[in-house]
């Protein structure tokens, strides 16, 4: 069931991962270029299905940490995530058997592929968010009892830092965030080192192959002059996500965005083409809530995705601009992300939103 | 030449170390209590003269890092510096043969004694500042080519963090300071792990025994109704410090103090008892400059020490209060702290002061 991922699939993968990134997770094109270069030098990457990973294997997820608004100016490097992996291996006194993404996103789905290409390690087709989230503890790994500590961080001048806060992942997030800011707003991390059996119990499975399928669906629909948004809806059906709803079509009329405490925070306003209806999307790096004319239509952890209406290309929060014509869709999060334990960590209340969670497919029945 | 330090000497040592701490280096009484408790439980501590340390021995200095204004409310613990030492040993893959202070100060001269008592390691009679300074790179270890990295930090909930910034000690200071703030404003560190031969080349020697001698001189003068300030002058003679000058006698009339970026920053104003003359002392955790009626009389790295005029007890910057009657003295820094390399790192310009360094004994010839 393992498969090989080569340079020709990176465009589709990056596009699909950016859709699942719900406005965050890093810029899709920079990450793609870094993977392409690593693959050119070292060859394609082996992707393992989670069920193929040995129970006693050591899996080390890697990612970039930082505000996306910073990452598009301070480009992530290819050395840092490998340095973070090596620092964590040194701390653990054991070498990794595989790497893995911690979240879906144009950037953070790519980082493990860089590491995989450069080290020869396989990458596991799974992650710890099933989308992108702004904070380290917002991972299914954490929800289901794993600890992010020890966490290794690497900066672009060869700096490394290994944090160990025991079971206190919120404290870890705070300390690591401070060092990220000190390293210029972005750094590579390796964390949540786990066994194969823990991986199978806690990860959101097959999100790399889902991203690839979503990205491919958009490209093929475009080539065949079909509606890319409808094609996405078809691609989601039959996966553990299952449901896609078109929340709104219109244009960007206002974006309020500030970089605060290492996050890109704010809200975006959209107006329907006939001017009669409005959509508000709130974000903290990632989209958290969508309200149409003041009524909640999609709430975190369900995915709010902003797409160019004609092409289906995802738009990250830092790329939102006045006048863009968009379709905003809601995608149901899989069951593992909607349990009471999961909602306590990354549901609406965890972000200070005053709305109780309701599944998007129940707010908007077909 | 090694000697044993027991609980009965701690009062003198803490007093003398606080004098050398030039207003910073931590509160002398909290540190003393922690050492006394550790000695009560584990016995006295062996102090090694630097010349006794084997060239290939591993010496690991330990300290607390943080704003003294925070440390008097968030008391340092006895577990953290041992945890920092152990984290650094783990990173290095080697056990320490001795510990050492990184600076003189009521707090930071005590931390290695806690570690020594609890681990059974000897402590070396030397340090890396010959006084106290606010930033990590302001150490003779750094001036003479050693690297502070790797640095291990430990917080009061068992958190550890190991930083490695290679030769960039200024970057290390910045990252470690950020984490210190995240840990509540204070944390224990182990850094500048070095060989015995590097220790002999770069450390300011015999500052523990000097602190003990200064503290004893003040106590004995007081018991014998002699002037404690004059007794201090006698005690400094014949050491590598050599010169003490009385800069001012008067009372505290104003203190401007703010905790900013993890530092206690500000200035204190003093007025002579007859009201005709004024002294200004500028500080960043430690005293940096003394100006009498606008004229510089003592400049960093020379030591500006504020003492209660009647008792000779040192007053830290956070303990300065309106109306206190004080003697302010200047003590010449030893030659190893006045080289061009040393002044580039912790001379007046390094603190943004617009005064060129001049030795206190030349500004104020006897």
UniProtKB/TrEMBL annotation, chains A, B:
Transmembrane intervals: none
Protein's recorded name: DUF917 domain-containing protein
Domain S-Me-THD-like C-terminal, residue spans: 168-360
Pfam families tied to this protein: S-Me-THD_C, S-Me-THD_N
InterPro entries associated with the record: S-Me-THD-like_C, S-Me-THD_C_sf, S-Me-THD_N, S-Me-THD_N_sf
Domain S-Me-THD N-terminal: 9-164
